[in-house]
Amino acid sequence: MLLLDEMKRIRTEKNMSYEEIAIKSGVSISSVQKIFGSDNPNPRKSTLEKLNKAFNPVDTYNFDRKNPGYQLPDKDKNYYVAETTRYNIYGKGKMVSGSGESLHTLSGYTYDDYMAMELPDGERVEVIDGVVYNLAAPSLSHQAILSYLNTYLSNELRKRKKRCLSFPAPYDVRLDFDEGPTTVVQPDILIKCSKDHKVDEDGNELPWVPSFVLEILSPATRSKDMFVKTKKYKESGVVEYWMIDEKAKQVVKYNFEKDTIKIYGFDAKIGLDIFDGDIKVDMKDLQDYLDEYADIIGL
What we know:
This protein is of the alpha+beta class. The protein is 30% helix and 21% strand. The protein is built from nine helices and 15 strands. Helix 2 crosses helix 3 (29-37).
C-alpha cells in the first residue's frame, strides 16, 4: 500500500484534482481536501486504504526510494511491465520495484522495441498503443476451451473447404503499422484466410488484420479483453470478435462491420458471421466436454 507522502507526490506529478481522487477512491471530496491540503493530516488506516484505489496501478509495488530521480531505463536493457502497471498513468519511464526486480512503466513502444525484447523464460507480453501488458499463464479450463474450439473450427473450415485456418495463441498480430507506438496482440484464436495472405514484390508478407478473433476471459486479462482490446479490434478493422466468459456461461459476439453485439448462453448454437452462419459452434457440446473432463481440468 502506498504511503500518504507517496500519494501526494504522485498527485502533484500527475496534477490530479481532489474531485478525481474522490471519485476513484470513494472518499468524500471534503475529506480528500483536508488530507491532501494539510501539512499534518492524520487519516485513519481504512481511509488510506480507500485512497490507494485512486493510485491502483502501482498499488502492489513500492517506489524505489533509492532512486528518487526515476531515471529512464537504458534501451539495451531487458525489461517488461507487469499487468498491474498496465495503464501507465504515472508517466513515461518511471521506475517501480517489486519482487526484487526493477520494472518500468515505459510507454511509447514501437514494433522494433517489441522485437528486441528478451523476456524471462515462459513470459509473454502484448503491446497496446505502446504500453506493455504482461500475460499471466492461462488456467487448465482456459486451455481446455481453447483446445476444443480451435480443433472444432479447424475441422469445420477444412470440411467446408473455406481456404482458411484457425490458429491458437501464441501468434503475434499487429494492429498498428506506423513508426510510433504500436499494438501487437496474441488473441486466443484467430482465423486467417487465403485472401489475407499477400506479399510484396520481394516476397515479404504485407500487413493484414484477421476478420475473426476470439478471446477466452480470465481474471488476469478480463478488463483488458473486454474494454481495451475490444476498442483496438474495432479500430483496426476486425470484423467479428467473440469473448468466451466461462464464469458467466456466456458468449459475447461483436460484429463491428454491422455495429451489433449479441450475448448467448452456453446452450446456444452460434454462427460465425464472417461465413454467413455456415459454421456454427454448439456451446452445449463445449459444456458437455468440460463436464466430461472436469476431474482432469479441475472444475
